[in-house]
Design a protein that fits this description.
Length: 194
Amino acid sequence: MPDLDAWDPWHPRVLTDRLAGLDVPWCVVAGWALDLFRRAGTRPHHDVEIAVPADTFDAVAARFDDCDFFTVHSGTVTPATADTLRTSHQTWAWDRAAGAWRFDVFREPHDGGTWICRREPRIRRPYSDIIHHTPDGIPFLAPEFVLLFKSKDPRPKDESDFRGILPLLSPDQRRRLDELLAMTAPTHPWRATT
């Protein structure tokens, strides 16, 4: 079993280049997505995560034949199989040659071209509404949706991300974030500042 701490994540540019031309709606998520939105690095990133529609995982994985994939569930990492893929939404990519974890894939629920929030299935949006792009073409999750995920049990870095991103959001993005939090955590303290 690979060392769970052996992370040497690729830059999102590497993932974008490796997935070029693939007809799958995918995007960088979590902390990296916020830095891509800001167009500036704000802190080191221990890992890099992307999100893909769950049933497109095989097409995405095929672009990384130099990697082995492992599912992550309740702190346990096991080789990805049809059975383990059903038990978790999270999949780590192990680069055999480098001996390092390179990226994390979140396999997300969807309905055709509509993304479905795995934490609150009432939240549904067309992929075209939630995936933004940097000027050089790296796809990333819209910041209000990144903050939605960071709002559950926020760590100090999540609080810092929230404080750093909030002033950069448009009035529509702030309104959307408040609406999303109203559905998932109506008394969340972030709502008072959106």
